[in-house]
Amino acid sequence: MRRLAASSIPAGLLLALVLASPAAAAAQVVPQDEVRSVAPNVFLDGNSRYIDFAYVKTEITFVNYVLERQSADIHIIVTREQTGSGGGEYTLSFIGLRKYQGRNATLRYYSKPTDTADEFRRGFVNILKQGLVPYLYDTPLAEFISVTYSQKKDFRPTPASDPWHYWVFGLSLRGNGEFEDQHQGYSYQVNASANRTTEAMKFRLYAGLNFSHNRYEIPDEPTILSETKRKSLSNSVFKSIDSHWSWGGGWSLYSSTYDNARLFTSVGPSVEYNIFPYAESTRRELRVQYRVNFTLRDYYELTVFGKERENLFSQALQVVLEIKEPWGSAGASLQGSTFIPDIKYNNLRADFGVYVNLFRGFSFNVGGQYSRIRDQLSLPGRDYTPEEILLQLKRLASGYYLRFELGLNYRFGSIYSNVVNPRFGNV
Fold it and tell me: What is the per-residue pLDDT for 422?
């Protein structure tokens, strides 16, 4: 399944649905060194979690795969967004460099949530082949290309042809156990969901249960037992207004021994504005979101403010920036939340991450998160036991949280990465 977006691909080549590799021309064998000398250099820029790079290299042998953008003739940026059915929308942005400057294209591949890994990678490679056609037809490799066409229906079902009317349901049950002489533990979680996504509206319903039990036997010490429980039920509905605006709201029920929450019941509206059109979300986003909540709180224990239960209004403003460009990628978010009217109880959180291809062989990445915490109203009003602290059974009082990372990378040597050798895995 695929959709071809605006590009500079000649109209006659839009029919290319299957592109055979040079190996398809069995009658003629071209030495690999000769292929490398005339084939364009490709930098495939995507996440290895959803791209099987080894499979791509074995299936598409009519290009050179390089390790850096500076050595490439074609830069292919692959981004992913989840579809309403639980599958994925993969956007492949082909950017022509050097002699292909200005020869750009955007293709999309849609996977189903029921696709096997092999079905997905075969479909992805097929779309990748289509996008490479315009870069080969004026090279000596053109004589080894064969094109076939097969008619297929539109990839998006209409309500008339979809018996589920875009509804997707999920149910999962997981558990584990660990048993030793001095430690026995088990945990399980149950999750259920019901989602419906259309161009105009997004509906989400989620329910979850998490339970963990641990028992520690320490010589000459009393047995230590620890249990944590978390339950949640939430629903949200968001509606599209135009290419920039959306609005909606939701409600939730939440219970957690870790957060001293016997039952938190919340409800409230939200509105969002995207500076860039939502249609460009795979490459760039700058979203501003504001939401208001009313929460009924019932605590397990008296809080540091002597509350057993209370009703609270809160508000939050969040700005999110995400950019994926040939030079690298960047993302940042800033969120501020306060209680109303007691705005002195607030939380300010900032996240950022940047990955930059500096110059040939060099890349740089930096990221981190900082939270200024002034809103811990639910902390129990007593001293914790050592077991509760060491086993992380209760949320601890803190004025801040800080995490950061920094990286500088350098590669040198061969610019090519065409060879695949699966022996001994990735060691």
Answer: 65
- Sequence-separated (6 or more) residues with CB below 8 Å from residue 231: 208, 209, 210, 253, 254, 255, 256
Equal CATH topology for 2-148 and 167-410: no
| Residue 29 backbone dihedrals phi, psi, to 5 degrees | -115, 125
pTM of the model: 0.68
| Contact by Cβ (8 Å): 55, 125 | yes
Measured between alpha carbons, how far is 424 from 364 in angstroms, rounded to an integer? Answer: 30
The token duo for 147 is 């094109």
Per-residue confidence (pLDDT) for residue 350, from 0 to 100: 97
What beta strand segments (E) does 241-345 contain? 245-256, 261-274, 284-299, 309-325, 328-340
- The confidence score (pLDDT) of residue 66 equals 84
d(CA 333, CA 367) in angstroms, rounded, equals 12
Would you state the structure tokens that stand for residue 223, as one six-digit string? Answer: 């047995």
SS3 32: helix
CATH placement of domain 167-410: 2.40.160
What pLDDT does 67 receive?
81
C-alpha to C-alpha distance for 146 and 259, rounded to whole angstroms = 62
Domain ranges of the chain: 2-148, 167-410
| Alpha-helix runs per DSSP H in 74-222 | 117-132
Q: Which residues of the chain have pLDDT under 50?
A: 1-27, 153-154
pLDDT at 15: 42
CB contact at 8 A, 176 and 186: yes
Contact at 8 Å (CB) between 326 and 69? yes
DSSP 286-302: EEEEEEEEEEEEEESS-
What pLDDT is recorded for position 5? Answer: 43
The domain defined by 2-148 carries CATH number 3.40.50: yes
Contact 377/337 with Cβ under 8 angstroms? no
Residue 373: what pLDDT? 95
Mode of pairing for the β-strands spanning 284-299 and 64-65: unpaired
Vertex 165 angle, CA 161 and 171, to 5°: 125
